[in-house]
């Protein structure tokens, strides 16, 4: 019933008009000219729309089933997975030596958005594998890389991340899974992990579990946690599959959404594993991948918002209900389409201006990751580390709200599973929760990232906004008024909030932490404001240069104006909440709630 | 897994300390002394917690099933329904002559909150019957009342409302269901209705459908719509059941939530019906019940928020994760409970301050309905008509957000159906949609209610706020600063928004309509601000009078301070959005979205 159309034109606009990727001095970016990226995006859009999206509702309805230790994925998933593999999509941004195509991360992200929007649950199998492969790439020995990466880059073997246990999620120091060293250098892993996405399924020959565990006799708490490679089937020296390892999926969880992905309870009963990276440095190994993984989840917030928006837009154009108060727009029909009504417009513009701003923010973030990795640029690394919790927390919160708004356009029909709008909402909900619940993102932002390296990354961000505003002021009165002034005002609110934390968080950290969530949202709005200002500038430049597609660029400007006028005023509210401090937040004894 | 505890103490506080019901000159209020209402609330709380809530998850998991035209409700529903009937709960606020207990609507609402919080889907069977009975009470002939009301008040027969058709929801003028007059004064009803809650089920001997239809040959559009009584089984003159009527449930919808309620496609194939009220005045008959029905749905927003909050609070107190940054609170345990963390507090306080403010708003609204009906007080009627879309739209939007926040406290466990938090979210979602989607509430508020009777009801509201602030200023510095000043500021924002609509809506109604949704939320915040100021005042009075339970009242003050400091600043954002006008909202051609 639903459709998905990849926004290739919008992605191209961001890559070339806004980020100007092929002109950047990042290794691998020179080849990213519009024809090249256009061809990739078109192809990715095609498989997303034609292969992955038609399976989205199937995955939701059928779900995954555990039968005698085997997990059966929904009808059609395996064939589609094979098609994705054959197209070379799984290794797009992986090194050539392991079978990848070595493209920049920004391209992996652009393509990943389409796949995930088309089918969130399905794309997780590939996404988790990418994450696990990245960890092996960063921390594995040469032998580990040679053994696992070619298979994982091709997704012949998939990967998982095993962190959570029944009694601990965020606080991994409480972990009980243990690793006993063996004479041959391997470990016996014993314990139970929960919420393991893609933990068991029928689409790959082997599943490579990365498992956090404590080596027996090691330090207490988080400092004693190490990371292990624990394959479902042991791998022989020649690369062929050996014995079944002592691990099993004990249960599949019934969830609110993403039914097409198997969320497993994984039981390790003395399973054979090998240390990945250093002893007791498991958290460091996990953190290496954190920026990418969290950016990927932020992306998922945008993805469900976009596919839901596209379908809400179709409905708003087709569904005839009521009349335009300023005069009938469809006088020969029984009623006007929903889209004539101002409040439906408000709803759609909220969605559209968020989605396009978010896509800009996401691809900017991905380009910073490329710069951090490929240029070993510390400033870019610091900036993207700062922005990562904002991308994850803000885009998933607003993405969820946006998806709910899209569902609302359908009225009662949005509540019926048949239209597919409920699935978008139910699927979008997970992104606010996993990979660090959004409250944890806010804590990471305010408790760690803000003050990192003496606060220089947040200062760099403020400079970036200030310089952008300065460099682009005075050229166009309307641009100054509609874009730069609101951006400066919003950025000032963010600075005031940061100042409040500095002045008050020292005496009592609760004054900062009680405002952390609002700070994350305030920061997100400023980032989207910045992206809209950048997009507005790019649109003006294209129009001034006599583009052949003026409507596209005028629409960008109009959408940006909407964001600036109607979304950015949220910064004042967040600032007021922040500056009310911790007193009202912490006033009650727990017993008096 | 979940629990529900009726907030009887809070309801009592509102009825007696804040609304001071037994001192009001409303017929039937004098008997509402604290002992009397306390006994009713305790008993209602008991059945809610012990009978209805344990069936909440059962209803979600089992759902309703249509087999050979018969709808089977979930296990245990019938027995619980019988228990509710035997307790006399179904006729609490219905006239004695039809078997009711003639209590004020405010008591029906207080009790209804508990029932609906305990089990939303279950309570709808009773709620729909109440709505249909109210319509017959208001518009039925003496014979119709005598025939249907005793059975419906007792819920031996249940009722439904049939408005929506596949191609029309809000725009009922497009309706196709037709009524052909018969020689005996009855009509033959033919057409299809959808989204009929409780349309068919196995808990009652008969189902009385109220069906909107167009009498053949009558006026076009909404002016030709009439309301009909169409029973599932025809009723003989002696009150016994006669032949099966020509109507049937064609399908049960698969929905996002409220699975325990059967949402039916109803097919009428020349079914026998009788006119209820006047010919072509069907909409007027529906509107009579609208305030009550919409207030009831607003209540449902609060209900799911409350039950979700209660369970999130339990989890926050029990789940050990991380340490209080200002020093361990549970040093002998492996970690501190979640509730020590400022961001968890922020989350819980957002929920708590909303829920308690919303409950105050709801019961105030219900008391205005009593005054409007029992005292025939036109001012009260006008005021509650104005506030009704705010109660419906604001409480269900914020109620949903609050429920989502409660789910968030559970982290990954909140996404798993087993904990029950997902069901609260999925169930809460419907209240934003049915009984007029919230965009329609905003339209009703700004397009109709605001200017009704020359705008005198909104002026009365502003006077009410102003007078409250004036009468209570200067007695307590902290109260002035923490309650009255924020309230005045918020009310000023609301007035400025109203002024903007007046000045700009004349030239172009889109300037008002594009801000309607924000106005509804802005209005809602001012109402909750007013309620918190009233609650704060009541708490101060109780403390000054030397209450034996100072903690309860101090907690009220602290919670109110939170609302004023942290929720009320939203008014500035809504005002800014409103005052940006319609230009950015309406800028795009439909084709350019």
From TrEMBL, chains A, B:
PANTHER family, per database record: ACYL-COA DEHYDROGENASE, BROAD-SPECIFICITY LINEAR ACYL-COA DEHYDROGENASE FADE5
Organism phylogeny: Bacteria, Pseudomonadati, Pseudomonadota, Alphaproteobacteria, Rhodobacterales
Its EC number(s): 1.3.99.41
Keyword Ribonucleoprotein among record annotations: no
Species annotation: Seohaeicola zhoushanensis
InterPro entries: Acyl-CoA_dh-like_C_dom (IPR025878), Acyl-CoA_Oxase/DH_mid-dom (IPR006091), Acyl-CoA_Oxase/DH_mid-dom_sf (IPR046373), AcylCo_DH-like_C (IPR036250), AcylCo_DH/oxidase_C (IPR009075), AcylCoA_DH/ox_N (IPR013786), AcylCoA_DH/ox_N_sf (IPR037069), AcylCoA_DH/oxidase_NM_dom_sf (IPR009100)
Essential cofactor(s): FAD
Domain annotation Acetyl-CoA dehydrogenase-like C-terminal: ranges: 461-588
Reaction catalysis annotation: 3-(methylsulfanyl)propanoyl-CoA + oxidized [electron-transfer flavoprotein] + H(+) = 3-(methylsulfanyl)acryloyl-CoA + reduced [electron-transfer flavoprotein]
Family label: Belongs to the acyl-CoA dehydrogenase family.
Acyl-CoA dehydrogenase/oxidase C-terminal domain residues: 281-444
MF terms (GO), sorted A to Z: flavin adenine dinucleotide binding; oxidoreductase activity, acting on the CH-CH group of donors
Record carries keyword Nucleotide-binding: no
Protein name (database record): 3-methylmercaptopropionyl-CoA dehydrogenase
Enzyme class: oxidoreductase
Segments forming domain Acyl-CoA oxidase/dehydrogenase middle: 161-269
Domain of life: Bacteria
Domain Acyl-CoA dehydrogenase/oxidase N-terminal intervals: 78-154
Record function comment: Involved in the assimilation of dimethylsulphoniopropionate (DMSP), an important compound in the fixation of carbon in marine phytoplankton, by mediating the conversion of 3-(methylthio)propanoyl-CoA (MMPA-CoA) to 3-(methylthio)acryloyl-CoA (MTA-CoA).
Alphabetically ordered keywords of this record: FAD, Flavoprotein, Oxidoreductase
Pfam families linked to this entry: Acyl-CoA_dh_1, Acyl-CoA_dh_C, Acyl-CoA_dh_M, Acyl-CoA_dh_N
SUPFAM superfamilies: Acyl-CoA dehydrogenase C-terminal domain-like, Acyl-CoA dehydrogenase NM domain-like
